[in-house]
Inverse folding.
């Protein structure tokens, strides 16, 4: 299976929608960004690790990491293997030295563990193509969006939606970008012949 490595860029809060957080992943050897909407507790757990904060008592993901280490189990990698109906699906690949085990996991939990164990995060080229936001670096180092447009959601063309989505990314409104990304995925799915759709 072809794999694309991802890195965590950060996590952001959307003040427009209460309790909405977005985790932003970037393609390691490319220019795509993938926003993933996550819950408040998972966002807190990820942010604590990104900021290298030490909570007074272990968080759930800290406890899970300690248990894995206590039993000699390593997290080999996280694989985001599917995107369906706006939801990313992930697996944890574990190894205790004698056998390898794959466990289904929420993507936010898998990434929280990956950050604590320095495990690599991967996805498929298809998911990058379907959900990624392509960004182009300018000379000054700022990110510039690559598509053009103007107008209102389900009535918008895919190109117009891409421009609006990328404007949201520039404004760090990743939750809004993720919503538009899902509409784009639905439009592409509706335009794909049934026997070309992968499951």
């Amino acid at each position: 299976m072809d794999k694309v490595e991802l890195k965590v860029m950060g996590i952001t809060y959307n003040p427009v929608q209460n309790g909405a957080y977005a985790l932003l992943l970037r393609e390691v050897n490319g220019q795509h960004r993938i926003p993933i909407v996550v819950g408040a507790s998972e966002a807190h757990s990820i942010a604590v690790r990104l900021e290298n904060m030490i909570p007074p008592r272990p968080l759930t993901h800290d406890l899970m990491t300690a248990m894995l280490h206590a039993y000699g189990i390593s997290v080999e990698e996280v694989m985001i293997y599917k995107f369906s109906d706006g939801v990313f699906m992930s697996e944890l690949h574990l190894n205790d030295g004698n056998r390898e085990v794959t466990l289904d996991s929420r993507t936010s939990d898998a990434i929280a563990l990956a950050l604590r164990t320095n495990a690599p995060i991967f996805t498929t080229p298809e998911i990058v193509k379907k959900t990624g936001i392509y960004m182009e670096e300018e000379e000054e180092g700022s990110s510039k969006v690559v598509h053009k447009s103007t107008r209102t959601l389900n009535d918008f063309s895919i190109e117009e939606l891409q421009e609006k989505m990328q404007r949201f990314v520039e404004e760090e409104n990743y939750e809004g970008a993720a919503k538009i990304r899902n509409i784009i995925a639905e439009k592409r799915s509706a335009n794909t012949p049934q026997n070309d759709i992968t499951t």
User: Anything to note?
Assistant: The chain is about 35% helix and 30% strand. The mean pLDDT is 83. The longest strand covers residues 4-14. Strands lie at 4-14, 20-27, 32-38, 74-84, 87-95, 100-106, 121-123, 133-137, 143-145.
